[in-house]
Write a structure and sequence with these properties.
This protein is α/β, with parallel strands linked by helices. The protein contains 15 helices and ten strands.
Length: about 350
């Protein structure tokens, strides 16, 4: 089986010849290729080159095409900064009052120059790999996260607890869902085999499970539904400890979830082995893969592999983005442990 076939099978809950491996690796890929984060994030040729070189070097099964967590926000008017040695980041919001949501028009985000970098990078990857390597195109932030960037996280959390603002909150989430779905369509059209979004501000470290069910999950499901109409699976990523919402995640209409190492992986396994939702994860990217010793990497990778050995719907990955300082030795041990398993 090639990489595309392995991950495609895992998403369908089918057996594979080897455990599929995909990494959240754009920062370390850029560094290994000799590019600054700004060069990587603004030049699709360099971004694709970095990801291709990394994939060939470590023999991955799939590529996560990701650039930053601010592009979609920038496309709707949020001010974005582009540091030389870090991914782009939001500077401040663009919606200083929920009352102004009525005046917002849905933009054509394809006109955003930075967003086109993402799409052109995916086109280059698709032309290079075809259906040999599984290509996951991140489409930046899910609706709840995008709303928090437009309002700023502090104002957004205040909006959520203000009962008088609930109607406007949902109007903003509707707006953000329309924008997210545009990116899904564009990324699928650029050749991605799968799309994904991040929704970490919707996790339990920020809001309650009840709030998640009310303000985030319905809109994540709608993006998943739209991805399916575009003919591609959808993965949801949430940082932090998501243990208390695992039951909700396992019952969603998403095809896969990627959860951080802080989540109770044993509980995740217990729920997901009975669910059609595929699990991507979840070795600690910083404490183990970036800063751990070789024995730590081997031990923790082996633990996850053994736990999910009875679960076909599984792709080995880091729990979140790998730091640019992740050493080659640890990456090679991580990959070798997976290849030698079974």
């Amino acid at each position: 089986m090639n990489g595309f076939q392995r991950i495609s099978a895992a998403l369908k809950g089918q057996a594979t010849d080897k455990v599929p491996v995909m990494l959240h690796n754009f920062m370390v890929a850029a560094k290994e290729a000799g590019y600054t984060q700004k060069e990587y994030g603004t030049d699709p040729v360099k971004a694709a080159d970095a990801l291709i070189r990394f994939s060939d070097k470590y023999q991955l099964d799939g590529i996560l095409m990701d650039i930053d967590t601010a592009t979609l926000a920038g496309a709707v008017g949020v001010s974005v900064d582009f540091p030389e040695d870090a991914p782009a980041r939001c500077e401040h919001g663009c919606l200083d009052s929920l009352e102004k949501i009525a005046d917002l028009e849905i933009p054509d985000i394809s006109l955003n120059e930075h967003l086109q970098v993402w799409l052109e990078t995916m086109r280059i990857l698709k032309a290079h790999f075809g259906d040999e390597m599984y290509l996951r195109g991140n489409v930046d932030q899910a609706p709840f996260s995008l709303a928090s960037m437009m309002r700023t996280p502090a104002e957004w959390l205040m909006d959520l607890v203000d009962e008088d603002s609930e109607e406007s909150v949902h109007k903003l989430l509707e707006y953000c869902t329309e924008v997210s779905c545009q990116f899904v369509k564009l990324m699928a059209g650029a050749g991605a085999h799968m799309v994904s979004t991040g929704d970490s501000p919707a996790g339990p470290s920020m809001i309650s499970p009840a709030m998640y069910a009310k303000f985030a999950m319905p809109y994540e499901n709608r993006v998943a539904d739209y991805a399916h109409t575009c003919g591609v699976p959808y993965l949801l990523h949430i940082c932090g400890d998501t243990t208390v919402i695992l039951d909700r995640l396992a019952a969603m209409r998403v095809d896969a979830i990627e959860l951080d190492y802080q989540t109770d992986v044993k509980k995740a396994h217990e729920l997901l082995k009975k669910s059609p939702v595929c699990f991507f994860g979840n070795v600690d990217p910083s404490g183990i893969l970036a800063r751990g010793k070789a024995a730590d990497v081997r031990r923790e990778t082996q633990k996850v592999l053994e736990l999910f050995s009875d679960t076909p719907g599984f792709v080995l990955s880091s729990g979140c983005a790998l730091p640019s300082t992740t050493p080659e030795e640890n990456l090679r041990i991580f990959i070798k442990t997976a290849r030698d398993f079974r």
